[in-house]
Amino acid sequence: MTFPSLIRALATIGLALTLPLAAARAQTAAPTDDLVAGSVLVRGRIEGVLLKHNGTTISRIGGYLDNSDSVTPEIDLSYFFTDHIAIEGETGLLHTTLTAKDTRLGNVSIGKVSSVPIFLVPQYHFLPNSRFNPYLGVGVAILPYFNAEAAGGLVRQLSVSNEVGTVFQLGIDYRVAGPWYANFDVKKLILSAHATANNGALSASGQVNPWIIGAGIGYRF
Protein backbone atom coordinates (compact mmCIF):
# COMPACT_ATOMS: atom_id res chain seq x y z
CA MET A 1 0.00 0.00 0.00
CA THR A 2 1.40 3.34 -0.98
CA PHE A 3 1.67 6.19 1.50
CA PRO A 4 -1.17 8.23 -0.13
CA SER A 5 -3.37 5.12 -0.04
CA LEU A 6 -2.60 4.65 3.67
CA ILE A 7 -3.53 8.27 4.41
CA ARG A 8 -6.84 7.90 2.54
CA ALA A 9 -7.62 4.68 4.41
CA LEU A 10 -6.88 6.23 7.81
CA ALA A 11 -8.99 9.28 6.92
CA THR A 12 -11.89 7.05 5.90
CA ILE A 13 -11.70 5.10 9.17
CA GLY A 14 -11.49 8.30 11.24
CA LEU A 15 -14.48 9.77 9.44
CA ALA A 16 -16.46 6.58 9.96
CA LEU A 17 -15.73 6.72 13.70
CA THR A 18 -16.39 10.43 14.28
CA LEU A 19 -19.57 10.92 12.26
CA PRO A 20 -21.81 8.79 14.56
CA LEU A 21 -20.39 10.55 17.63
CA ALA A 22 -21.01 13.98 16.11
CA ALA A 23 -24.55 12.99 15.15
CA ALA A 24 -25.31 11.71 18.66
CA ARG A 25 -23.95 14.90 20.19
CA ALA A 26 -26.08 17.03 17.87
CA GLN A 27 -29.19 15.08 18.86
CA THR A 28 -28.65 15.34 22.62
CA ALA A 29 -27.34 18.92 22.89
CA ALA A 30 -30.10 21.53 23.40
CA PRO A 31 -29.65 25.16 22.35
CA THR A 32 -28.41 26.94 25.44
CA ASP A 33 -30.98 29.74 25.22
CA ASP A 34 -34.10 27.57 24.87
CA LEU A 35 -36.45 26.94 27.80
CA VAL A 36 -35.76 23.27 28.50
CA ALA A 37 -35.26 20.96 31.48
CA GLY A 38 -33.05 22.66 34.09
CA SER A 39 -33.74 26.20 32.83
CA VAL A 40 -34.47 28.99 35.30
CA LEU A 41 -36.41 31.95 33.89
CA VAL A 42 -36.62 35.16 35.93
CA ARG A 43 -39.19 37.71 34.75
CA GLY A 44 -40.32 41.18 35.72
CA ARG A 45 -43.78 42.33 34.65
CA ILE A 46 -46.07 45.32 34.90
CA GLU A 47 -49.60 44.06 35.57
CA GLY A 48 -53.04 45.58 35.40
CA VAL A 49 -55.36 44.20 38.09
CA LEU A 50 -59.05 44.45 37.23
CA LEU A 51 -60.77 44.05 40.61
CA LYS A 52 -64.51 44.26 40.03
CA HIS A 53 -67.03 43.12 42.62
CA ASN A 54 -68.73 39.78 42.13
CA GLY A 55 -71.58 39.24 44.57
CA THR A 56 -70.08 40.95 47.63
CA THR A 57 -72.77 42.04 50.09
CA ILE A 58 -72.54 44.52 52.96
CA SER A 59 -74.33 44.01 56.28
CA ARG A 60 -76.80 46.56 57.72
CA ILE A 61 -76.49 49.23 55.02
CA GLY A 62 -76.82 47.02 51.93
CA GLY A 63 -75.05 47.66 48.62
CA TYR A 64 -71.89 46.02 47.40
CA LEU A 65 -68.14 46.41 47.84
CA ASP A 66 -66.29 47.89 44.87
CA ASN A 67 -62.53 47.43 44.45
CA SER A 68 -60.45 49.86 42.42
CA ASP A 69 -58.42 48.72 39.43
CA SER A 70 -54.67 49.14 39.78
CA VAL A 71 -51.31 48.79 38.04
CA THR A 72 -48.57 46.99 39.91
CA PRO A 73 -45.04 45.61 39.38
CA GLU A 74 -44.27 41.95 40.00
CA ILE A 75 -41.36 39.54 39.82
CA ASP A 76 -41.49 35.80 39.21
CA LEU A 77 -39.24 32.81 38.79
CA SER A 78 -39.94 29.63 36.78
CA TYR A 79 -37.97 26.40 37.10
CA PHE A 80 -38.27 23.81 34.31
CA PHE A 81 -38.37 20.23 35.61
CA THR A 82 -38.73 18.96 32.04
CA ASP A 83 -38.89 20.65 28.63
CA HIS A 84 -42.66 21.00 29.09
CA ILE A 85 -43.28 21.12 32.85
CA ALA A 86 -42.31 24.13 34.96
CA ILE A 87 -43.43 25.70 38.21
CA GLU A 88 -43.68 29.46 38.65
CA GLY A 89 -43.51 31.45 41.87
CA GLU A 90 -44.68 35.05 41.67
CA THR A 91 -45.04 37.97 44.03
CA GLY A 92 -45.72 41.70 43.81
CA LEU A 93 -47.30 44.62 45.63
CA LEU A 94 -50.98 45.53 45.30
CA HIS A 95 -52.81 48.64 46.59
CA THR A 96 -56.61 48.66 46.51
CA THR A 97 -59.21 51.34 47.32
CA LEU A 98 -62.51 50.03 48.71
CA THR A 99 -65.87 51.75 48.30
CA ALA A 100 -69.34 50.65 49.40
CA LYS A 101 -71.70 51.46 46.53
CA ASP A 102 -75.48 51.67 46.22
CA THR A 103 -75.98 51.45 49.98
CA ARG A 104 -78.85 53.03 51.90
CA LEU A 105 -76.39 55.82 52.71
CA GLY A 106 -75.25 56.25 49.11
CA ASN A 107 -71.66 55.57 48.13
CA VAL A 108 -69.41 55.29 51.18
CA SER A 109 -65.59 55.37 51.13
CA ILE A 110 -64.30 52.39 53.10
CA GLY A 111 -60.54 52.82 52.91
CA LYS A 112 -57.38 51.43 51.38
CA VAL A 113 -55.59 48.13 51.80
CA SER A 114 -52.29 46.69 50.55
CA SER A 115 -51.33 43.08 49.88
CA VAL A 116 -48.41 41.01 48.65
CA PRO A 117 -50.00 38.42 46.33
CA ILE A 118 -48.17 35.10 46.19
CA PHE A 119 -48.85 32.70 43.32
CA LEU A 120 -47.48 29.16 42.98
CA VAL A 121 -48.42 27.80 39.56
CA PRO A 122 -47.44 24.51 37.86
CA GLN A 123 -47.32 25.14 34.09
CA TYR A 124 -47.31 23.20 30.83
CA HIS A 125 -45.13 24.78 28.09
CA PHE A 126 -46.12 23.70 24.60
CA LEU A 127 -43.08 24.53 22.41
CA PRO A 128 -39.85 24.40 24.44
CA ASN A 129 -37.57 24.54 21.36
CA SER A 130 -39.48 27.30 19.60
CA ARG A 131 -39.01 31.05 19.66
CA PHE A 132 -42.70 31.29 20.66
CA ASN A 133 -43.45 29.16 23.74
CA PRO A 134 -47.07 29.38 24.97
CA TYR A 135 -48.04 27.91 28.33
CA LEU A 136 -51.01 27.09 30.57
CA GLY A 137 -51.04 26.90 34.35
CA VAL A 138 -53.33 26.24 37.33
CA GLY A 139 -52.17 26.88 40.85
CA VAL A 140 -52.65 28.48 44.26
CA ALA A 141 -53.11 32.18 45.00
CA ILE A 142 -52.43 33.58 48.49
CA LEU A 143 -53.31 37.20 49.33
CA PRO A 144 -51.91 38.31 52.70
CA TYR A 145 -53.27 41.81 53.42
CA PHE A 146 -51.61 44.51 55.50
CA ASN A 147 -51.73 48.25 56.13
CA ALA A 148 -55.53 48.56 56.07
CA GLU A 149 -56.38 52.27 56.36
CA ALA A 150 -59.93 53.35 57.17
CA ALA A 151 -61.28 56.23 55.10
CA GLY A 152 -62.53 58.16 58.15
CA GLY A 153 -65.99 59.67 58.61
CA LEU A 154 -68.42 56.75 58.78
CA VAL A 155 -65.55 54.23 58.69
CA ARG A 156 -63.13 54.57 61.59
CA GLN A 157 -61.56 51.09 61.57
CA LEU A 158 -60.93 48.58 58.75
CA SER A 159 -59.78 44.97 58.69
CA VAL A 160 -59.43 42.64 55.68
CA SER A 161 -58.84 38.89 56.07
CA ASN A 162 -56.07 37.01 54.29
CA GLU A 163 -57.39 34.80 51.50
CA VAL A 164 -56.38 31.64 49.63
CA GLY A 165 -57.82 30.79 46.21
CA THR A 166 -57.14 29.39 42.77
CA VAL A 167 -55.32 31.02 39.86
CA PHE A 168 -55.68 30.09 36.18
CA GLN A 169 -52.91 31.28 33.84
CA LEU A 170 -52.37 31.63 30.10
CA GLY A 171 -49.22 33.18 28.68
CA ILE A 172 -46.48 33.17 26.09
CA ASP A 173 -42.71 33.61 26.24
CA TYR A 174 -40.95 34.94 23.11
CA ARG A 175 -37.18 34.65 22.79
CA VAL A 176 -36.01 38.09 21.66
CA ALA A 177 -32.26 37.49 21.53
CA GLY A 178 -29.92 35.13 23.35
CA PRO A 179 -31.27 34.44 26.86
CA TRP A 180 -33.67 37.41 26.82
CA TYR A 181 -37.42 36.76 26.59
CA ALA A 182 -40.49 38.96 26.21
CA ASN A 183 -43.59 37.79 28.06
CA PHE A 184 -47.35 38.34 27.94
CA ASP A 185 -49.51 36.78 30.62
CA VAL A 186 -53.19 36.66 31.65
CA LYS A 187 -54.41 35.28 34.98
CA LYS A 188 -57.86 34.77 36.48
CA LEU A 189 -58.16 34.56 40.27
CA ILE A 190 -61.01 32.76 42.02
CA LEU A 191 -61.18 33.64 45.71
CA SER A 192 -63.44 34.85 48.49
CA ALA A 193 -63.06 38.14 50.33
CA HIS A 194 -64.10 39.24 53.81
CA ALA A 195 -63.73 42.70 55.32
CA THR A 196 -65.03 44.30 58.51
CA ALA A 197 -65.27 47.94 59.53
CA ASN A 198 -65.78 49.70 62.86
CA ASN A 199 -64.78 46.59 64.80
CA GLY A 200 -67.37 44.37 63.15
CA ALA A 201 -70.30 46.81 63.05
CA LEU A 202 -70.15 46.52 59.24
CA SER A 203 -68.97 43.53 57.25
CA ALA A 204 -68.69 42.57 53.59
CA SER A 205 -68.11 39.15 52.10
CA GLY A 206 -68.35 37.45 48.73
CA GLN A 207 -66.34 36.54 45.66
CA VAL A 208 -63.58 38.73 44.24
CA ASN A 209 -62.43 37.21 40.95
CA PRO A 210 -60.07 39.69 39.27
CA TRP A 211 -58.39 39.46 35.89
CA ILE A 212 -54.64 40.18 35.93
CA ILE A 213 -53.05 41.15 32.62
CA GLY A 214 -49.29 41.63 32.45
CA ALA A 215 -46.36 42.13 30.11
CA GLY A 216 -42.65 42.15 30.81
CA ILE A 217 -39.18 40.83 30.13
CA GLY A 218 -37.34 37.73 31.32
CA TYR A 219 -33.81 36.34 31.46
CA ARG A 220 -33.04 32.64 31.13
CA PHE A 221 -30.27 31.17 33.33
TrEMBL record:
Q: May I have one GO cellular component term? A: outer membrane
InterPro entries to which the protein is assigned, alphabetical: OMP/PagP_B-barrel, OMPW
Q: Which UniProt keywords apply?
A: Signal
What GO biological process terms does the UniProt entry carry, in alphabetical order? transmembrane transport
- Show which residues constitute the signal peptide: 1-29
What Pfam families does the annotation carry? OmpW
Family to which this protein belongs: Belongs to the OmpW/AlkL family.
By what name is this protein known?
Answer: Outer membrane beta-barrel protein
Organism (species): Acidisoma cellulosilyticum
